[in-house]
Amino acid sequence: RMFPLTLKRIDNLIVVAGSYLDSDEVPRGSIILEINGRPVNEIWDRLRKITSADALNPHFIDAQVTKRFSMFYASAYGLPDQYTVSYIPPGHNSPESKVLAPADHESVRKVVFAHFNHPLPQFEILEEMNTALLTVPTFIYYDRVNEFRHLMDSCFHLIRTRGIGHLILDVRGNGGGDPFCSSVLLAYLQKRPVPYFAEPYGRYDTLSQPLPLPEDHFDGRLYTLIDGSCGSTNGHFCALLKYHHIGTFIGTPGGATFKCNAGRDTEFRLEHTQLILTIGRSTYSAAVSNMEKTAILPDIEAHETLDDFLENRDIFLETALHQIELDRKLSSHDRF
Q1: Where in the chain is the domain with CATH 2.30.42.10?
Q2: pLDDT tens column, 291-300
Q3: Which CATH superfamily, name and number, covers 5-112?
Q4: Cα–Cα distance measured from residue 217 to residue 292, given in angstroms and rounded to the nearest whole number
Q5: CATH 3.90.226.10 residue ranges for the chain
Q6: CA distances to 22, 38, 74, 79 from 83, in Å
Q7: Chain centroid, CA 20 distance in Å
Q8: How far apart are alpha carbons 240 and 234 in whole angstroms?
Q9: CATH topology of domain 117-335
Q10: By three-state DSSP, how is residue 185 classified?
Q11: Residue 205 gets which letter from DSSP?
Q12: What is the DSSP letter of 177?
């Protein structure tokens, strides 16, 4: 009996992004006001307080509440038989109310944990802009590292043979995974061989040595799209890009740092406060020094508005394409 809508926080508004029931009873883009008589901002604040994050990262907390709202709501408020939702539909000023049937647990889990189904990276070449777009939704390929490696080999071979000078790397929503995968990608982007981990961690001990530079390594301009969902191994990866000044970050602050407690975590749920405590049993640190343990910040911020969302605009990608145009013009000017 889970809350049936997926939500998104935009400009401090809680907006309907979709439904676990494949229903449009509450239209996409509606602004949620109340759920079962409680103001939605009150609910959101409570769920934020029971959500933990490395270094108390508020961007990661909001990303987790967004992604797991139905689960966290159940933890804090239980599993009601129905949900009365007060909302303002897109293009309207007056609130409306609907009574919604709940979603079942499996329908929610199927969406929330979709990244465990090994979604493949997506690759596209934008010929007119001499630009490649590589989307890596996860590094969770623990038993498929060779498959991931072959995909990266193919992508960067195409980039090299086609003479592509700009690469947009989209790691938004990538909550981490296997360092053996993220290190493959880093190897293609590094300018010289650098180590991935600060120390030899168990089966990842080889990653404390400089990564070999692949034959088809990328030597053009990199633009990496990030958001608050970038966690765990993706935090290591982004920290290494930032530390070695590889490319330009575009988006919102990331959800992790160069160091994280990962792997064999232990989770406790406190009975009276519903506080969720996650105790890390191992710590992994990227090979950086004198780097502040805070969120990875974008070099260029991208801010999505409600209008952008309603118009299905990807403002992060648009910002990257605009920056590429500016960089191309600057390069042309410098040549003359």
Answers
A1: 5-112
A2: 888 888 999 9
A3: PDZ domain (2.30.42.10)
A4: 28
A5: 117-335
A6: 16, 11, 12, 10
A7: 20
A8: 10
A9: 2-enoyl-CoA Hydratase; Chain A, domain 1 (3.90.226)
A10: helix
A11: G
A12: B
Q: Comparing 268 with 76, which gets the higher pLDDT? A: 76
Q: How distant, in Å, are the alpha carbons of 112, 126, 167, 234 from that of 321?
A: 29, 10, 10, 23
pLDDT of residue 206: 95
Considering only 83-87, 191-195, 266-270, 309-313, which range has the smallest mean pLDDT?
266-270
Query: Tokens 């990564």 belong to which residue?
Result: 211
Cα torsion through 320, 57, 71, 47, rounded to 10: -120
DSSP line for 266-305: EEEE-TTT--EEEE-S-EEEBS-SS--SSPPPPSEE----
- ∠ Cα 265 267 271 (to 5°): 170
The DSSP 8-state label assigned to residue 163 in this structure reads T
Which ranges in 55-214 belong to alpha helices (H)?
A: 58-67, 69-77, 105-112, 145-161, 179-189
Arithmetic mean of pLDDT, 279-294: 83
More confident residue, 152 or 49: 152
Cα dihedral 225, 227, 230, 235 in deg (nearest 10): 70
